[in-house]
Amino acid sequence: MRIIGSMSATDVRVDAYLAALPSDQRELLEGVRARIRQLVPDAEETISYDMPAFKLGDRFLLLGRHPLEQMPQFYRHADALLVSLRDEPVFALTLPGKLQSYLAAGIPVLAMVNGEAADVVRRSGGGLTCAAGDAAGLAAAVLKLATASPAERAEMGRRGKAFSVDEFDRATLIARLEGWLRKLTARRDGAAALP
Fold first, then answer.
1. Are 54 and 35 in contact (CB under 8 A)?
2. DSSP string covering 144-162
3. What whole-number distance in Å separates Cα of residue 163 and Cα of residue 125?
4. Would 92 disulfide with which of 10, 98, 111, 114, CB 3.0-4.6 Å?
């Protein structure tokens, strides 16, 4: 048998990582892996944050798909988190779940969105927005965030996290709902007592 080239320790670790996944996730990530190798043949396959990644110089890291519960470990390594939606009327009515997760992480959000999602980012003070599909607006928001002081960025993240607790925290929402139900019950009971 003739072997050309060799497997590095990284290749073995990536293969082991993929082998441990459920078959549907493994197939998806193997497809992503093959496509990245085809599109960016100079990208170096590596393990980063205990997961497979591709690195091109020191500029980017292309990561595969991961379960939602693992995402916060990525967030804490980011300076900003990007959420974008297409410029379609239906998406103006949408509040992506990832936006809620991003605000809860306490990291500034860059949002290229319209409607409700843009309004939430503005009201929270937890990030910067531009219209969906506005590449120049996104570039300006990135530049503005990059030139902000570390204290300003930290404050932006703090405001987003506080907003998340006030508006999206499960315990807060349940307490709010219980309060509304108590008020309705009190009104109903009070109305029944009237002659």
1. no
2. HHHHS-HHHHHHHHHHHHH
3. 8
4. 114
Q: What is the pTM of this model?
A: 0.65
Task: Write out the two tokens for 1.
Answer: 């048998």
> Structural domain boundaries of the chain?
1-66, 71-188
**Class of the domain covering 71-188:** alpha beta
Tell me the angle at which helices 97-105 and 115-124 cross, rounded to the nearest 10 degrees.
10
CA distance 136 to 162: 29
Structure tokens at 175: 């307490």
- Angle at the Cα of 37 from the Cα atoms of 34 and 43, rounded to 5 degrees: 145
pLDDT-based confidence at residue 141 (cuts at 50, 70, 90): very high
- The token pair at 178 is 């219980």
